[in-house]
Every structure is written in C-alpha cells, then in structure tokens.
Amino acid sequence: MADSTAAAGPQPRAHDTREAVLFGGVYGAVLACSMVAALTQYGHTSEASRRYDALWLLVTACASALAHGYAHYIAERAPHRRWDALHTLADEWPLVTAVLPTVFLLAGAGWGWWPPKGVEYPAFVLNIVILFGLGLVTARWSHRSWPASVLIGALDALLGVIVVVANALIK
Fold it and tell me: pLDDT tens-digit profile of 74-110?
C-alpha cells in the first residue's frame, strides 16, 4: 500500500523552536552589535540620533526577519496552504526579539533616561552577554555538559567580540 504522505509531495520542514531561538537570537544579537557599531561610527551621540538609531535597528531587524522568513518560504519547494507564508514569517520572532534590549537601550538614551554618549559600549556588552546566554541555554537544552555548554556560550559570545574588535579597528 502506498504511503499517503508520499503522494502529497514533500512537506515543508518544521523548524524546531530551540533551533529557531538559537538561530534568530544569535542572528539578532550580532545584527544589533553590527548596527550599533555602524550607526555610531561618525560620533553622532545626541538624544535625537539615539532615537534614530533605535528606530533603524528595529526596522532592520524586521526587514531581516521578513527576508529570512520569505527565503525559507520560497526555498521549500512544496505545495503551501493558505496561511503558510504568515506562519513562516511568524517563526522569525526570535530575531526581532533579540534586538529589543538594544532598541530599548538606544531609545532610553534618546529619551534622556541615561546619557546618549557612549551608550554603544553597554550595548556591545549587552549583546555579548545575550550571545553567551543563548549558547549556554541551547547547549543545556541539548543535554550538553556544563563545561561544553560554557564553551559553546563563549564561542557564541566571540561573534559579538569580533564585531566590537572590528569596529575598533575600522574607526
């Protein structure tokens, strides 16, 4: 007897939530580091420029999430149901969520909650900590040992450190 799922063609790949959190979170935190480095390159540190930076980071994260979700949708060469495109785009929430702490930090500087000058340094540290935490947590979810999980977290954090070092060298 033939398998009924084989007759329907290939099914779209279901993305594991843990995989999505790690991928989107790492992508979002590295994106946030990179955007902060790029947006503060020319020394614009007024409150207005920090609000602008926060808005651009949020817009860039949403555009990246849409592009990534759309690419997944198109790459899955399978028949799609009516709402599959929206579900695929909604699966990109970890990417946008990962940039929100940095958006909040920049917006807070823009609203005068803390000094706008030098806010990029706490933003870098924040994203490096996020990267470390994502690596550690997802490694523990995968039942890795604590030493292996700390190493994976450190390797994830290294991505943020590379952005910070590149920013320092390029300036």
Answer: 887 777 777 776 777 788 889 999 999 999 999 999 9
Q: What predicted TM-score, i.e. pTM, was given to this entire model?
A: 0.84
Estimate the crossing angle of helix 120-141 against helix 93-110, to 10 degrees.
150
Q: What is the pLDDT of residues 110-163, one digit of tens each?
A: 999 999 999 999 999 999 999 999 999 999 999 999 999 999 999 999 999 998
Q: For the chain, count helices (H), then strands (E).
A: 7, 0
Contacts made by residues 77-84, CB under 8 angstroms, sequence distance 24+ = 77/10, 78/9, 78/10, 78/11, 78/12, 79/8, 79/9, 80/12, 84/12
Given a contact cutoff of 8 angstroms between Cβ atoms, the answer to whether 119 and 103 are in contact is no
